[in-house]
Amino acid sequence: MLEKRRSVREYSSKPVEEEKLARLLEAVNSAPSAGNLQAYKVYVVKDEKKRKALAEAALNQEFVAHAPICLVFFSDPRRSAIRYGERGATLYCVQDATIAATFAMLTAVALGLSTVWVGAFDDEKVNEVLAVSGLRPVAILPIGYCLEEPPPTPRRPVWEIFELC
């Protein structure tokens, strides 16, 4: 499954079946998190106007609006800070949201869907589009059926990445 994952930026208008969306959300909910606090919130954006506004907030990355669904992952610093203080508020909640988003990406691939990690956006505009406060946006995942088959991207050699100790 991992070798099939690609960053897809062209989506079909075919809707994502509710059963597949439910499986995606269940996968997100099963992601590990610091202290099992699940210090994140996920907005499921189906509304076309909101997806277009998200695309604008994502520095005019139009493909965000073309996917039938966008999952927007937010970290919840207050939830994590209850147990872990400053480190929870600045790191653990971001890690929690990131792990949950990764679970969504890999589950999407397993379900025959495509996505791309969008991290370039204006935090305040994303919060405004979704009427969110007190949370920090971490990632936007457009999800749908792909119209393109991008080739694998080159990867660094393993020996460059890992240090054996």
Q: Indicate the overall shape.
A: globular
CATH superfamily: NADH Oxidase
Architecture, according to CATH? 3-Layer(aba) Sandwich
Give me the count of strands. 4
Radius of gyration: 16 Å
Describe the main β-sheet briefly: 4 strands, antiparallel
Helical proportion, percent range = 40-55%
How large is the count of helical segments?
6
| Average pLDDT taken over every residue | 93
Low-confidence stretches: none
Task: Give the terminus-to-terminus CA distance.
Answer: 29 Å
Structural class: alpha+beta
Q: Strands of the biggest beta sheet: in what spatial order?
A: 1-2-4-3
Topology readout:
Layout: H1 18-29, E1 40-45, H2 48-57, H3 63-66, E2 69-75, H4 77-110, E3 114-115, H5 123-129, E4 136-144, H6 158-161
Antiparallel strand pairs: 1-2, 2-4, 3-4
